[in-house]
Each structure stands twice: as C-alpha cells, then as structure tokens.
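Human: Cast an eye over this sequence-structure pair and say how the chain folds.
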Amino acid sequence: MSKSLQAIRGMNDILPEQTPLWRYFEATVARLLDNYGYKQIRTPIVEFTELFKRSIGEVTDIVEKEMYTFEDRNGDSLTLRPEGTAACVRAVLEHGITGGGQTQKMWYIGPMYRHERPQKGRYRQFHQIGCEVFNLDGPDIDAELIVLTWRLWGQLGIRDAVKLELNSLGTSESRGRYREALVEFLSAHLDKLDEDSQRRLKTNPLRVLDTKNADTQAVLVDAPKMADYLDDESRTHFEGLKARLDAAGIPYVINPKLVRGLDYYSKTVFEWVTDKLGAQGTVCAGGRYDGLVEQMGGKPTTGVGFAMGIERLILLLETLEQIPEEISRQVDVYLCAFGEAAELAALTLSEKVRDQVPDLRLQINAGAGSFKSQFKKADKSGALYALILGDDELAQQVVGFKPLRGQGEQQSIAFDALAAHLATCIVQG
C-alpha cells in the first residue's frame, strides 16, 4: 500500500476556519504600517546561499544547522530564505534605491524556512512580517519601530501580555573589545560551561550569553558586561532611544544578555517577549545593522528593522481570547431560493445588492434543497440574516427577511428596497 500523502513535518496547512484570524492580523498590521509611511516590498523565497552566509554569518546556528540549501540544475547553491532582512538588503543594492542617501522605509510579509525541531509556535515553515529602514541613523527611527509595535499590541488587545527588552551591542569595534574580554573570562571557567557554549566560545562567543543552561548562566553572573565596553557614540544613541521611549510612556527593561542570533546587529537590539506561550516567548525582535549594507558590497548605509512571528502572535491572540467576534462570521446574509425561477431571480437580485452594498458578505445557497436543509445551511454559515425567495415572493417582487441571531420577526422587503435595508441592518448588527 502506498504511503498516504501528508505535509512535510513542521510545514503546516492553514485551514479555512483558521484563515479569518490570519487575515485579520495581517490586515491590521498592513494598515498600521501604511499609516506610518512604510511601503511593501516582495522578495523571492529562494536566494543564492552566499547571501545568507555573508549577512547572517557562517558560524551562526542558522547557517550551520538550519538552512534549507540545495543545488539547482545549473550547479548553483540556493537556499530557502531563513529570514527577511538579507533579501531586503540585496534588493536595495541590486536596484540602487538607497543610493545617494535615499531613505527607504519598507515592510515585507511571507514564509521563512529553518530546519528546527517543530514544536508549538515554532515551525520549519513559519511566517513573518518585518520592517526595514535604510539611511536613518538616529535613535528616533529606532524608537518609531518600537512605538508602532506598541500601538499594534494595543490594537490587538495584547499589551498586558508582552514586555519590551532592550540592549545595545555598540559598534563593531566596541563589540570586538567586549568579545575579547568575554572570551578571556569564559576561557578561565571552561570546565563549567555546557558543551554547546564551549563550541560557541570558539565561533560566536556572544551567543553564550543567551544560553538556557543553568550552570553556564551561573558562570555568566560575574562575566564582563557589554555596557562597560560601549563607545560614546553607542551610549549616546542608546540614551536617546530610552529617552524617547520614556516620553512615549512605553515600559521596558534592560537585558544585558540580549544579543540576538544574527551577526549583523550593532547598537540597538530589542525583543518583545511574553510568558503566555511557554518556551517560545519572543514574538517580535529586531535592531540596528549599520554595517550590513557595506558588508554586502554597498556603500556605507545605516539600517534598522524588526520581524514578528505571525504563528506566535496568532497563538497569543487565541490564548488570550482576543479574537474579534466579527471575524468568526464570514457571512452576513444567506439567500435561500426555492425553485428554478427563484434561483435565477436570486442570482440577478444578489448581484444588484452587491453593486449597491460592496462590503456586504452575501452567500447564495447552492445545490438547491428543501426549506429545512437550506435553513440549516444558513444557520451553519454564521449569517446574521436569511433571505427567502420562492414562487410566492417572486410573484410579489419581495424577499422574506429573517433574523437568525437575535430578536425580530420575519418580514417582507421589496426588491428595490432590499439593498438599503441590508446596509442598515449590517451597520447596526
């Protein structure tokens, strides 16, 4: 017997009953970003592998362990994108849209791919919405990115469930000095480090700071602090960011162990975290990457951005039961038609109503059926109202109008008054 077909582990279908919440979330974010002046960019999901090696860093977990990399028919090494920033940088360089110091404020949405151990809120195909800003170097734009996410949490009703953590990694020079001090300290306590941290000490020592191993964390209590190695420029930038967040009334905590998992970050790094989702606590994260464009072959160009995990935020909305009632209802009105003449009239009438009430979600019964079966489908659709059209109604040029979710008697509405009546009812409903 052949093996039954199924999705690849960690790559999930989003079923019709789930997509309304996704569409609500995506539309809410898109509307907010439009209002802040960000423009959407759409990049391919496949890029040359070298792009991610050069941007993310060859000794990161993502590049070493997690990327979906393959050789195409031309012998080129290609990779399914594991994150969105590198592709945006490649795009602005390729098309020259940051040349001459042009400011670009852009956002993207789409699937990313990492070969990780699948668990709730963490998948091998996952979806992100992110922002990238180029050629603005002050703390004001860092603050704007954080402020707009704070506004988003308010619109979604989850502000009380998330916490902002901040840190500054300084410039590459100050980070280099700190790396030397950290390596010297940890090397003196090598026997107390877990195996993974010992490996990272040789390749990416800053990642030791965010280890989950309790014994290594105990060693890190006395480790050098990044704040003591910050250059004056980075310290001034960080103080400017904190002053703006204070002015906006956004609470935050300084987390000196926050380093992020990508090599390209400098100065500001931040994470929005929650304790409502177990181990998968980060729902949005980002920071500044002022050297990345130059590292990728471009002219010196500052950059800052963030990415939010859609799956985790959807899970958080469900956990907190912050799902607007209206998105669970996909139909406003269900039209039941009985008999061929009524079905033909229903088609014509429904299209006229749609012309006059464009936002109305009107579904016509398909597949005929008895009065009882059609009303059963009308109820199951979640519609607020049912319309009834049979031979008697057709003869009088009226439609039966019956509320399905509340008080009210069935009444007859003339064809030419139906659109206005439905528009009023839906607004009030």
User: Anything to note?
Assistant: The first helix runs from residue 19 to 35. The chain has a mean pLDDT of 91. The longest strand covers residues 104-113.
